[in-house]
Amino acid sequence: MRKRYLAPLVLSVLFFAACGGGEKKQENADSASTHESAAADNSMVSPNANKPVSKGETLMAESDCKTCHKEEMKVVGPALKDIAAKYPNTPENVDKLADKVIKGGSGNWGEVAMLPHPQVSKEDAKEMVSYILSLAPAK
């Protein structure tokens, strides 16, 4: 009867002993992985990975914009690149679209209305719109 309980106990102890057994090994593993990541192959990384993030892009990431808009494809609202292709990056368009972000609206991209975002300041909305319009394909 004792062997029945003793075998799982011994196997458990061996398992835990084989898995580590100290913080020193973990520290060594962490430092080794840090060195490996520093020398990692980045050939598959996006070419824009080192590009500085604009204030508008940061503001959009912190808001609910990405719920309805994606950069490349239509979700609920139009793709950001489609917006950029439709509106030239002029101060008038930035101002008009910033108002649209704050007040909401419908009719330009279909029947679904964009919800208003009254919590967004006019300056922040302009930064976001400037970022969106910067996504226009180069001509």
Describe the structure.
With 139 residues, the chain is mainly α. 56% of the residues lie in helices and 0% in strands. The chain contains seven helices and no strands. The chain has helices spanning 2-19, 23-38, 55-62, 65-68, 80-86, 91-103, 122-133. It is elongated, with a radius of gyration of 26 Å.
Features:
single chain; 139 residues; mainly alpha
Helices and strands, with pairings:
Layout: H1 2-19, H2 23-38, H3 55-62, H4 65-68, H5 80-86, H6 91-103, H7 122-133
Helix pairs in contact: 3-7, 6-7
Classify the helix fraction into a percent range: 55-70%
What kind of sheet is the major sheet? none
Q: What's the count of strands?
A: 0
- What is the 3D shape? elongated
Strand residue content: under 5%
Oligomeric status: single chain
- The number of helical elements comes to 7
Poorly predicted segments: none
The termini sit apart by: 82 Å
Query: What class do helices, strands and sheet pairing give?
Result: mainly alpha
Short description:
The protein contains seven helices and no strands.
